[in-house]
Amino acid sequence: MEQWWEALRLAYGVACQSAEEWLPWAESLPLASAYQGESEPLLGSHYMGEHRWVREHLRRLLTAAVGRAQLGTCTRPNYGLQLGQDVLTPDVLMVTAEQLATGCFHDYYVEIPAHLVVEVCLPERRGLDVQERRSL
After folding, report:
1. Is the pLDDT of residue 37 over 70?
2. Fewer CB atoms < 10 Å away: N or C end of the chain?
3. Rounded to the nearest 10 degrees, how much is the dihedral formed by the CA atoms of 96, 99, 104, 106?
4. Using an 8 Å Cβ cutoff, are 29 and 35 in contact?
5. Euclidean distance between the first and final Cα of the chain, in Å?
6. pTM for the model
7. Mean pLDDT across 10-31
8. Whole-angstrom Cα distance, residue 86 to residue 64?
């Protein structure tokens, strides 16, 4: 745990030494205000298991179909989609074979808009997710 606090101090200049000190610091971040008033805590949801199942089911089906037809590739979760200065991590994204041929597909992100993007929304975050995506 000491290494974790040391990493935060070095990377972000965070002076927190404990979880009790971390929470007020995290709540002071500009991002935290967007979540205040939500029905669920920032890092929790009653639907996480369902979200993961739906995401993986869609990804497996799409990956199999795209692969069989040799249309392109689908990515794993947390793969980056770079749009200008922003990098999104949709639940599923598909890049066509033509897009792959341009050299824009890297180990951790793709540099151009994907052919298909799927975001599975948690019920309590749907409004915030839609607002964030539309602002880009």
Report:
1. no
2. N
3. 20
4. no
5. 36
6. 0.62
7. 69
8. 29
Is the pLDDT at 8 greater than 60, yes or no? yes
Q: Going by C-beta distance under 8 Å and a sequence separation of 6 or more, which residues neighbour residue 66?
A: 72, 73, 74, 94
The DSSP code sequence of 96-134 is EHHHHTTT-B-SSEESS--SEEE-PPPGGGHHHHHHHHH
pLDDT one-digit tens code per residue, 79-119: 999 988 888 889 999 999 999 999 999 988 999 999 999 98
What's the CA dihedral at 135, 59, 116, 91 to 10 degrees?
10
Top-level class of domain 48-134: alpha beta
Q: Indicate the residue type of 132.
A: E
Residues of the chain with CATH 3.90.1570.10: 48-134
Tokens of 82: 């770079």
User: How long, in residues, is the chain?
Assistant: 136
User: In this structure, are residues 75 and 93 in contact, taking their beta carbons and an 8 Å threshold?
Assistant: yes
